[in-house]
Amino acid sequence: MATTTKFKQVTVGGRKYALVPLATLRRLTAATAGAAVPLPPLPPADAGGNRPAVAFARASIARRIIQRRTAASLSQIELARRAGIRPETLNRIEKAKVTADTATLTKIDAALTAAGAAN
To answer: What domains can be seen in the chain, in order of their start residue?
Structure first.
């Protein structure tokens, strides 16, 4: 026999939300906890085996951040909060769309180190 869980709805700032018991939330999110996060591809090499430096650096940095973030079981939002940067910024860095400045990378590294992610 299937059980149905009822959720309370609330409206905050014109947006509707469902309040769920914490145990239910944990059960629902546990199913996706082990899901693999796709890594951005490295740029292809030319005939001489060379790769574009900036694109290669962006992808390499993005891949390492993703690996460390997932090892620490952090979401992008949580890592961004701990690093004191916007989630949108972290998302663009992890997609290898932008080149992060040294200050931003230092904040991300410090947050990952504090979370126990291996260097």
So the answer is: 53-114 (1.10.260.40)
